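Form 12-C: Joint structure prediction
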Amino acid sequence: GQNIDQPTEMTATEGAIVQINCTYQTSGFNGLFWYQQHAGEAPTFLSYNVLDGLEEKGRFSSFLSRSKGYSYLLLKELQMKDSASYLCAVLDSNYQLIWGAGTKLIIKP
Amino acid sequence: NAGVTQTPKFRILKIGQSMTLQCTQDMNHNYMYWYRQDPGMGLKLIYYSVGAGITDKGEVPNGYNVSRSTTEDFPLRLELAAPSQTSVYFCASRTGTGDTGELFFGEGSRLTVL
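Section 2 - Result
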């Protein structure tokens, strides 16, 4: 079966750095996405990785290792507004998105 | 641009009632999706469509129906509502083949069945 694993909840301090991990086992791979979802809102796109390596976008970076079935989202200089759930999703061989359950990130002052 | 528009945003249903959640997009996207999200959980795919006239079941289709008569519209029908269908429903769309797969979401429809 297809499976995506990510931690249920993480806590970090304002101004710090946090890394959210995602491991996946899917039938085929056509890219990995990270979405941010604030409570009561729809998910919004953060990043897309299809090749191995690091993609940087401002305070957020996303890393992919296809051989290890592994990705992480790195958030730097954490702000209170970064408190949200972070969803990892993989585009499989049929170009369907397989979703993880999400990681709830709590930022403390 | 409006993007993906869902209506209604909130609805309370009694057990056994039926209703339709409306979804329309103005981006000429081929692919459209309906997801449900229960509290503290990830997204579960109900139905999806790869183009007008084509629909297919997702992970949790029971109790729901869809149609796709136009590229723009993808309504979700709930027949004989049950408490287990209490959830937040998201409609989403993307361009289709050859794109990066990025989904554009509606704001969600919060449904309570009592």
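Section 3 - Comments
The radius of gyration of chain B is 13 Å. Chain B is about 0% helix and 50% strand.
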